[in-house]
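lol forgot to send this yesterday, sorry. struct tokens for the thing we talked abt
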């Protein structure tokens, strides 16, 4: 399929052929959900922790006599039912990540790209380069485009001036091709690819 290529000045700069095996797949919500869950699970720190009965302070012996006090029998002050005792079945430090096959991750990324293309949210620009690192100039160009919350994916490396200029624009993210992922693509209103990014993604995913 063919799609128009525009410049940052919002002028047509030709067209490009998109590979149907990368940008024209059937949208499968199950694959996208698996990839997003995998990504979010990997980024969880898993450092939540409470103290169990073996970790809280307090003597291990019986706090009082078994009989004669009129109170329920207790074996230790560290028990969960006692004030200041340990937490029963509390969270522990652990890794929340799980495995996901490479072919599933690759197919999910192609599905995410195809989803943006099918919904008309895919824009291809000639390049993502800026002469100066000034946010004001880039912000004016972006507002004319009407992209809203957008993700810009460049080629192997992001232009330094463009990256600096985009840092203070709310809702605009810039990534190299190697950083393209399902979660960041789906959470934005518009996916902006440079011509170089299209070539690199096809080379990576085909």
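and heres what i got for the seq, position by position
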């Amino acid at each position: 399929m063919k799609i128009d290529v525009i410049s940052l000045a919002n002028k047509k700069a030709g067209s490009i052929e998109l590979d149907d095996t990368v940008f024209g797949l059937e949208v499968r919500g199950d694959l996208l959900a698996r990839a997003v869950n995998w990504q979010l699970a990997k980024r969880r720190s898993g450092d939540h922790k409470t103290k169990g009965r073996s970790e809280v302070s307090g003597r291990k012996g019986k706090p009082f006599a078994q009989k004669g006090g009129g109170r329920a029998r207790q074996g230790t002050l560290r028990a969960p039912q006692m004030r200041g005792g340990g937490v029963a079945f509390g969270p522990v430090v652990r890794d929340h990540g799980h495995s996901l096959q490479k072919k599933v991750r690759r197919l999910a990324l192609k599905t995410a790209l195809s989803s943006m293309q099918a919904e008309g949210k895919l824009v291809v620009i000639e390049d993502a380069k800026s002469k100066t690192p000034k946010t004001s100039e880039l912000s004016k160009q972006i507002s004319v485009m009407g992209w809203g919350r957008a993700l810009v994916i460049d080629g192997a490396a992001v232009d330094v001036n463009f990256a600096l200029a985009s840092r203070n624009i709310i809702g605009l993210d810039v990534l190299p091709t190697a950083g393209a992922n399902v979660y960041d693509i789906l959470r934005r209103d518009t996916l902006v690819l440079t011509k170089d990014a299209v070539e690199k993604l096809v080379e990576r995913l085909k």
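The chain has two domains: 2-43+99-205, 50-90. anyway ping me if u want another try
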